[in-house]
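Narrative of accomplishments. A recurring question from our advisory board has been how the design workflow behaves on a single, concrete structure rather than in aggregate. To address it, we present the structure tokens for one chain from the evaluation set, followed by the sequence designed for it. No filtering or post-editing was applied between the two.
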């Protein structure tokens, strides 16, 4: 500690400036708290800089390239479509810069003090923040830890120029000819699809029996079918064994059905999950209760085992979703302000920007039955929707899960175009305690994909118009 390091006193210290941290800081400031936010990296965290936002930009660019190649069944042909990948990366970087700059403006506009540096807990009310040159002590009444997560590195696949994590895959200077993706979860599927749309020859190696294990088989099967059309080879029950790096590529060794195989590629992308960033900030010495995997235990108000310290986002239990972190950040800030808030995850959606998109909120049919509900599952196909047909993208369905006794909406799953946007209405229905009848009586514009929600609700009521019961 440097001489003259007089402690700076705060109401609330937020550690981490990702979608959980910066949202928590803004909400805390809005309740009248004196707030400082600290991060050793860029504002916006993984999500805005090297995760959600740039990956969706790359996915969208891949879709544009794929569409530009023409659609023969619609009578559209293209002689030759080319891509300048450096321009794609430049455009993607512009999107990121605009959003991260916006976060800085929002924090400053709400009078949140922004500090860059690494945090180490001294005790339950004190931290030391260090950068390359200086160290500063901060004392606080409450702290919110929102340090996020990092990609898991698996044995024999040490990250390098050729063995990539998701950050590396988003920063490639050229479109690779061949890529192996280890892990068929949402990150592997999304990035594998994006590069397949740019004509990369992609192989996905998944260790379990199916890709996208968190979604129902009917949904993941649609994605697998589209991947096959794009030329993607999906190998399930495959165990990655090792990689040999060469100057111009890699050779990946894997085992499937007891047989060892190899595959050559320009790069191998490893997407087998994420590890919480709860080491190296002094939490063990502080005595905060954590699992053996570094997940912090919290109560329904995001409070840790130390009553003035809160934790949110990827470092607590649940899926590593940006919108989950933001939601928890608001809860923690409001609890600190004395409000009666607590977390309720039923209305949190899960989305995969695959092709087609997948989205789910609330209970699945099986989860509802396991929870003891008598339910009705009502499906409506995209193929019976005029807007989906006019988009030439009519694979998929919406499944509505309602309680049999009163038609209460308790879940929904969507596989199809714009599922990521459509799921919001179903989340609102669950949060608001709406029934299938409420959805059916809501007039939806025609022709839109949103009508599918209304149609599925009519199926639930036994009065479908555009399919025969």
């Amino acid at each position: 500690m440097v001489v003259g390091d007089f402690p700076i006193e705060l109401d609330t210290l937020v550690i981490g400036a990702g979608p959980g941290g910066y949202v928590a800081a803004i909400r805390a400031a809005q309740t009248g708290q004196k707030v400082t936010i600290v991060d050793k990296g860029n504002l916006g965290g993984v999500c805005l800089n090297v995760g959600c936002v740039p990956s969706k930009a790359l996915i969208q660019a891949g879709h544009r390239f794929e569409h530009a190649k023409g659609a023969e069944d619609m009578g559209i042909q293209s002689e030759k479509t080319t891509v300048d990948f450096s321009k794609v990366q430049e455009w993607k970087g512009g999107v990121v810069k605009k959003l991260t700059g916006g976060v800085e403006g929002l924090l400053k506009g709400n009078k949140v003090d922004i500090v860059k540096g690494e945090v180490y807990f001294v005790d339950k009310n004190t931290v030391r923040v260090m950068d390359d040159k200086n160290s500063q002590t901060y004392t606080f009444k409450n702290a919110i830890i929102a340090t996020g997560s990092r990609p898991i590195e698996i044995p024999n696949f040490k990250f390098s120029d050729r063995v990539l994590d998701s950050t590396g895959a988003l920063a490639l200077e050229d479109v690779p000819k061949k890529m192996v993706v280890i892990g068929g979860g949402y990150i592997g599927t999304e990035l594998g699809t994006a590069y397949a749309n740019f004509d990369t020859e992609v192989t996905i190696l998944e260790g379990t029996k199916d890709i996208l294990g968190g979604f129902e088989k009917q949904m993941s099967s649609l994605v697998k079918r589209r991947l096959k059309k794009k030329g993607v080879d999906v190998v399930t029950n495959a165990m990655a064994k090792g990689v040999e790096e060469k100057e111009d590529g890699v050779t990946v060794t894997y085992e499937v059905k007891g047989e060892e195989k190899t595959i050559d590629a320009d790069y191998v992308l490893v997407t087998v999950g994420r590890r919480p960033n709860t080491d190296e900030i002094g939490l063990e010495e502080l005595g905060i209760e954590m699992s053996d995997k570094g997940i912090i235990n919290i109560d329904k108000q995001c409070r840790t085992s130390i009553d003035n310290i809160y934790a949110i986002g990827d470092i607590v239990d649940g899926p590593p979703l940006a919108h989950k972190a933001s939601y928890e950040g608001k809860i923690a800030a409001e609890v600190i302000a004395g409000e009666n808030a607590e977390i309720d995850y039923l209305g949190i959606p899960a989305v995969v920007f695959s092709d087609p998109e997948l989205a789910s909120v609330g209970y699945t049919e099986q989860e509802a039955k396991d929870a003891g509900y008598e339910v009705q599952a009502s499906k409506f196909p995209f193929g019976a929707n005029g807007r989906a047909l006019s988009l030439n993208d009519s694979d998929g369905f919406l499944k509505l899960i309602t309680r049999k006794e009163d038609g209460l909406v308790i879940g929904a799953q969507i596989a199809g175009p714009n599922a990521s946007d459509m799921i919001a209405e179903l989340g609102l229905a669950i949060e608001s305690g709406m029934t299938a009848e409420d959805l059916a009586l809501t007039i939806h514009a025609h022709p839109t994909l949103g009508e599918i929600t209304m149609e599925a609700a009519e199926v639930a009521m036994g009065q479908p118009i555009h399919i025969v019961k």
